[in-house]
Amino acid sequence: MPDQKNDPAKQNTTEHISVLTGASDEQDLMKTAISLQTIAAHFGFDWPDIAPVFAKLDEEIQELKYEVEQSNISGKNALDNRKSIEDELGDVLFCCMNLARFLKVDPTQALQSTNNKFKRRFGFIESYVLQKGKKMQDLSLEELDKAWDLAKEKGL
Question: Which of 15, 18, 65, 122 is most open to solvent, judged by the fewest CB atoms within 10 Å of its CB?
Fold first, then answer.
């Protein structure tokens, strides 16, 4: 159990120390995001259930899409609007970490599982293309997508 000296929430000082000080920036960034949200939740800054978390995620995705579209509409390269896009993408990722917290899912494990699934399916596509005597670049995205769907049907 942390003592008062190391627990910012229990310190009696005139200098304000944020309760978020306990969330280390040295750990995995996904875990840092969850730590920040868990600490904030402990102090009442939290959604009552998961529905508003999904709504917030939808909102953040719309804001990201807007920034990307603004880059495209104005003829700017996405790099010209990189900071805004980066901020909005960060908001989406932060919201996803909150969703993971609500679902009690380890986001690192979830992402690792998805990475492994992607490798299996992509490996299937590579084998599929080789069996046809072709190269990946010989097939259209539509043909590759059909092979992806076949991999999914096979449970890969």
Answer: 15
